Amino acid sequence: MNDLFQRLLNRLDGGLQVLPDKPEETPDSALRALWHTVAGQPCSAGAAMRRPLPSIETVPHAEHALERLVERRLQGEPLAYLTGRQQFMGLEMLSAPGALIPRAETELLAWAAVELLREIPGEPIAIDVCTGSGNIAYAMAWDAPRARVMGGDISGAALALARENGRLLGLGDRLDLRLGDLLEPFDEAPLRGRVDLITCAPPYIQSHKVGAMAAEISEHEPREAFDGGPLGVTLLLRLVEDAPNLLRAGGWLAFEVGNGQGPAMSRRLQRDGNYHEVRELTDAGGVVRALLARRA
Ligand SMILES: C[S@@+](CC[C@H](N)C(=O)[O-])C[C@H]1O[C@@H](n2cnc3c(N)ncnc32)[C@H](O)[C@@H]1O
User: Fold this and answer.
1) Which candidate among 50, 82, 214, 268 keeps its CA 20 to 30 Å from the CA of 186?
2) pLDDT tens, position by position, 9-36
3) In the structure, how many helices (H) and strands (E) does the chain have?
């Protein structure tokens, strides 16, 4: 077992290209996650580092299965799609082609959303649009247990995975998931002017740059999760326009922006009479990666 582990670790050490937006992945964490997967206990790279390595001695063809997974990883298949797991805000979640793999950088937005919800008394209403696998929505439901959380996405495949995540996390009854374009599935009388928080991690890559992204992303993750239109901010501009219809006075719009989009989107919000307080959230490098705006 140790010989096999060492041999495959050397293989990954020599050839694995890890993308900067998956900082939890190393040759060691990737191999451990794949090992758990072959053992029938699939888990993310983050979880694999905290769990003892299970025995695979009794698993039929385990060595061959592990070698195949390592090769597929070296060929550029994302680890989360091979294991079927990805961690977000400490929650171990399902991951599958058809939905974006949640990124650690999105936790900046999710933590801010949780903090806002915890400050609101009663049962605050939160809507997560572009919910994908439901990661932000479930993090809000988990970490802000009083909140009534809804999620929406235009992709049926993403929503199907979000539903499965509800079952895995035991939070299925906490989330109202709706298929449709941006806020349209939530535009109904009981919600208009009543929503406390709208969150969104939108597609924000400029259309002409999507094909030039790392092959591990562009060849495996769904294009609709990245393509933000000619300037990258098509959906964000619509969201800024449409959110006031649903937000109560004092409610919050909170969204992620791409690297470099923060200052212009912040100015757009500050110019808009529908919002009266704008907060910029920066990453460790000082780059604005999320914006919070309060409904006037
Ligand atoms: C960048 S991914 C974010 C997924 C997830 N929230 C996360 O943090 O990983 C963007 C998501 O927006 C969805 N999407 C794209 N256009 C949309 C639209 N017009 N209305 C609703 N969802 C949309 C995509 O299907 C994808 O799931």
Assistant:
1) 268
2) 999 999 999 999 999 999 999 999 999 9
3) 12, 9
The residue behind tokens 């990245």 is 226
Nearest CA to ligand 1 atom 26: 225
In angstroms, what is the span from residue 237 Cα to ligand 1's centroid? 15
Q: Whose CA is nearest to atom 4 of ligand 1?
A: 132
**Residues belonging to the chain:** 296
Which residue has its alpha carbon closest to ligand 1 atom 10?
225
Could you tell which of 86, 133, 153 is best to mutate to test the pocket of ligand 1, judged by most ligand atoms within 8 Å of the CB? Answer: 153
Is residue 16 within 6 Å of ligand 1 at its C-beta? no
b/e sequence 50-84, b meaning 16+ C-beta within 10 Å:
eeeeeebeeeeebeebbbebbeebeeebbbbbbbe
pLDDT at 1: 54
Q: Phi first, then psi: give them for residue 57, nearest 5 degrees.
A: -60, -35
